[in-house]
Write a structure and sequence with these properties.
Layout: H1 11-20, H2 22-36, H3 39-47, E1 67-68, E2 89-94, E3 100-103, H4 104-108, E4 113-120, E5 125-136, H5 137-144, E6 152-157, E7 162-166, H6 167-170, E8 176-181, E9 184-185, E10 195-197, E11 210-216
Parallel strand pairs: 1-5, 2-11
Antiparallel strand pairs: 2-3, 4-5, 5-8, 6-7, 6-11, 8-9, 8-10
Bound molecules: the ligand Nc1nc2c(c(=O)[nH]1)N[C@H]1C(S)=C(S)[C@@H](COP(=O)(O)O)O[C@H]1N2 and molybdenum atom.
The ligand Nc1nc2c(c(=O)[nH]1)N[C@H]1C(S)=C(S)[C@@H](COP(=O)(O)O)O[C@H]1N2 binds next to loops.
């Protein structure tokens, strides 16, 4: 990753660096410190959480234009779907060498991670430090053996809610398909049995009630993304509306 030569340092680049490891990140920070020179970058260094099991980062970071609340709000379009453990499946298809479907039990047998992360709704509220439990999205990418030409995934939820993200964004440590929240089963109103969690992006990218994942070469615009909201949706960059 090139840093020193570019005077326009992207916040997301800095955040990516916090994943590498703290010592290297500190060295890089010193190297670019004069260039960046902002209190914020020092804050990122201290706030990053890098661990073996708890893979969350930036769990206490309040982005520009956001206010903190103490409980996740319940926010969605339409009804809360019924969950039947016997018939529920997660289907993975599109540009993959191995398409498959998992039932709930098979899903729960995949390697589990816990990640503590903040959640930011584009309407302004943020709930810091949510303890999500589930599988990393990239576990699904590995299982599916994603084709070389795939660049994006469309996440398809109950009642036709969709969102899409780049495979790069979906490969981060803290991007989960979550079935647990704060030491309990993920409640239906928060997307149970299974939701996507993408902490870096505004909440509309964290689709609740996920049923299908489709890998694509071109990006398909999601529900809110085709209604005036930003497709990149970077919460730390105040990136709220379509340009
Ligand atoms: N299926 C589905 N997922 C959704 C939504 C929705 O309307 N339908 N709303 C999104 C928005 S805008 C936000 S802020 C979060 C809210 O998650 P919460 O209700 O668990 O706080 O869910 C996201 N995921
Ligand atoms: Mo939202």
């Amino acid at each position: 990753m090139e840093v020193g030569s570019n005077s326009k340092i992207n916040l997301e680049t800095l955040i990516d660096l916090s994943k590498v490891n703290r010592r290297r990140f500190l060295k890089v920070l010193i190297g670019i410190g004069a260039l960046v020179g902002s209190a914020a970058s020092i804050g990122y260094y201290f706030m990053g959480t890098v661990g073996k099991k708890v893979v969350g980062e930036m769990a206490q970071m309040l982005p520009p234009g956001q206010y903190a609340i103490d409980r996740l709000r319940v926010l969605h379009e339409g009804p809360i779907p019924e969950f039947d453990e016997k018939t529920w499946t997660l289907e993975v298809y599109g540009l993959v060498k191995n398409s498959f479907a998992l039932n709930y039990e098979e899903l729960k047998n995949l390697p589990e991670v816990t990640s503590i992360s903040a959640f930011h709704c584009v309407t302004g509220w943020s709930k810091l430090e949510n303890k999500w439990k589930g599988i990393q999205f990239r576990t699904i990418m590995e299982m599916a053996n994603v084709s070389e030409n795939a660049q994006f995934a469309t996440i398809e939820s109950e009642y036709d809610y969709t969102t899409s993200l780049t495979l790069k964004d979906l490969s981060r440590d803290d991007v989960l398909l979550a079935y647990g929240l704060d030491d309990e089963e993920l409640p239906p109103q928060h997307g149970g049995p299974l939701r996507l969690v993408v902490p870096q992006k505004y909440g509309y990218k964290s689709a609740k009630w996920v049923r299908k994942i489709k890998f694509t070469e071109k990006q398909e615009l999601g529900y809110w993304e085709s209604r005036g909201y930003s497709n990149t949706a970077s919460a730390l960059l105040d990136d709220r509306y379509a340009k």
